[in-house]
Structure formats: structure tokens, C-alpha cells
Amino acid sequence: MSRDHGANHGAPPEKPPADPRTGDRAPRERDLSSRERPLAPRERQELAAPFRRPLLLLAAGTTVLALACTAPVAAHAHAGPWPDWLKIGLALSLLQACYGVWLTVAGDWAAVRVSMVVNAFVATVYGTAFMVAILTPPEQIALFDLETVRSAARWWCPAVLVLAAALSFYAGRLAQLWRAAQP
Fold first, then answer.
1. Are 129 and 85 in contact (CB under 8 A)?
2. Does 6 score more than 60 pLDDT?
3. Where do runs of H (alpha helix) occur along 36-180?
4. Cα 30 to chain centroid, rounded
5. What is the pTM of this model?
């Protein structure tokens, strides 16, 4: 037997107390029995239609930057053992090219957000290589084996850094707008 000292005895339940900061009432619990149905593929396509062209522009920009980043790799690939910078540049180019293709296949705001992170990572790596090329004294062995291409890295790395950062910003903004347009 339970003791109910403050029972309402059939009266309607009291309203939840107001939040002292905002004055709002406490949020109601969600009724899980009336869930919204998931969007059908046709509805999803209609929702993504305004974002299709910016998505393709982002995918094309990412792929073109990836192909452009392979230029130094192609110029030095015939040399004997590959230096570390060549391996890193090739891996980053492949990663970017894969995400450029994935954007055209996946085509949703989450894929665009991941592309933002990938482009920011590429910009960070090229920024690091730029700082190594500038700050390492000529007589010292540079990180990433950059001693043979130090002068070219001083102009190549900032160019890729700026383009990858711009793509990252564009992808972040597109993902934000797309997410906000979701119902």
C-alpha cells in the first residue's frame, strides 16, 4: 500500500514548473507512438535538388585540386627511392580524389561535412610542409625529406593550403545550409 500525501484525487495534473532563466515550461516528453515516417527516396531527391549544383561544384573542385597536387609527385616519381613528401602528397591526393567521387555518389549534407574535414586536414598538412620549408635552416635535414624541393615547396605549399582551406570553408557553409533546410 502506497502512501500518497499530496494526491490530487482525480484533479488534472499540475503544469511543470517554469524555467527561472527563460520562463518557459518544461518540455513535454515526446510521444514515441507517433513518429514521423522516414523520407522516401523521391522526397529525399526533391529536398536535395537545390543543393545538387553546389555539391557537384564542390566535388569537381576537390577532384581538380587532388589532380593538381599530383603534379609534383609525377615530376619526381621517376627518381630512385621515393622521399617522404612524395608518399604523403600521393596519399593526400588519393584521399581527396576518393572524397570528390564520394560526394557525387553519396550526395547529402553529412558527406559534405566530411569533405570539409578532409580538405581542412589537407590544408593543415600542406601548411606544416610550408612551415618546415621556410623555418628549417638550409644546412639542416628537413622534415618530410624536403631538402631537394625546398624552394619549390615555398610557393607550392601555400597555394595548395589556400585552395584546400577555401574548399573546406565552402563545404562547411554548404553543409550548414543544407542541414538547416532539413525538415
1. yes
2. no
3. 41-48, 52-76, 84-106, 109-135, 150-180
4. 31
5. 0.68
